[in-house]
């Protein structure tokens, strides 16, 4: 592939919301697989209460250990879906071109709250907290034993002086992820249909 063809192909991948959606869907599916396996292992461990660390228990603990990765992938899925929505919106306004600052600003962040707001999604308090938590999983919890900066590691909880706030997740975090993902995916389709019918 020559440099000109490679460059054109690269631009197509940046400007095509369908490709961003495809990436988001693949990440969401992978997250779902890990989440279900970790949930099943947790239920089994709680139900059966194995007395010692036998191979089966070690296997269950490994499965439970995939929770952080599942939530990291869920966060990345939302990030790609929000970016798909924003790319569709930007292309509807005017086509994205090389060096477009609108696109550069979009791709230089993992802030799910910021991306959701840029895309015009309504974010309630539960969604805001979920997006902030999933950002922690994208940036470090799902990937590293600690964040780059000490102040991001178990910061103080302003609601409980002296306590630290862990980036905790739960079934309700997962449900919020699924709702936001479905809403953003539906909006991508609406924007794309509007752009196609208006052209």
SSE inventory with pairings:
Elements: H1 3-15, H2 17-48, H3 55-64, H4 67-93, H5 101-107, H6 112-118, H7 125-141, H8 171-198
Helix pairs in contact: 2-3, 2-4, 4-5, 4-6, 4-7, 4-8, 7-8
Tell me briefly what this model is:
The chain has 199 residues and is mainly alpha-helical. Helices cover 71% and strands 0% of the residues. The chain has one domain.
Structural description of this entry:
With 199 residues, this protein is mainly α. It has one domain. The chain is built from 8 helices and no strands. Helix 4 (67-93) packs parallel to helix 6 and helix 7 (125-141) packs across helix 8 (171-198). The chain is globular, with a radius of gyration of 20 Å. The relative contact order is 0.13. The model has no long low-confidence stretch (mean pLDDT 84).
Number of extended strands:
0
Low-confidence stretches: none
Structural category: mainly alpha
Coarse morphology: globular
Which range best describes the helical content: under 10%, 10-25%, 25-40%, 40-55%, 55-70% or over 70%? over 70%
End-to-end C-alpha gap? 32 Å
Strand content: under 5%
Assembly state: single chain
Q: C-alpha Rg, in Å? A: 20 Å
Q: What does the largest sheet look like?
A: none
The number of distinct structural domains comes to 1
Task: Figure out the total of helices.
Answer: 8
Q: What is the residue-averaged pLDDT?
A: 84
Could you state the order of secondary-structure elements as H and E?
HHHHHHHH
């Amino acid at each position: 592939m020559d440099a000109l063809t490679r460059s054109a192909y690269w631009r197509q991948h940046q400007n095509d919301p369908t490709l961003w959606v495809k990436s988001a869907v693949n990440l969401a599916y992978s997250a779902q697989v890990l989440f279900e396996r970790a949930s099943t292992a947790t239920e089994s461990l709680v139900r059966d209460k194995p007395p010692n660390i036998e191979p089966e228990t070690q296997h269950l603990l490994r499965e439970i250990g995939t929770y952080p990765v599942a939530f990291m992938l869920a966060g990345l899925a939302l990030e790609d879906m929000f970016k798909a929505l924003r790319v569709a919106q930007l292309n509807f306004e005017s086509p994205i071109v090389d060096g477009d600052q609108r696109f550069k600003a979009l791709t230089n962040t993992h802030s799910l709250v910021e991306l959701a707001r840029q895309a015009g999604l309504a974010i309630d308090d539960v969604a805001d907290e979920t997006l902030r938590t999933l950002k922690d999983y994208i940036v470090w919890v799902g990937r590293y034993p600690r964040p780059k900066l000490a102040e991001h590691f178990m910061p103080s909880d302003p609601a409980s002086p002296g306590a630290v706030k862990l980036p905790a997740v739960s079934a309700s975090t997962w449900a919020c992820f699924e709702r936001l993902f479905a809403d953003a995916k539906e909006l991508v389709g609406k924007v794309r249909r509007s752009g196609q019918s208006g052209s």
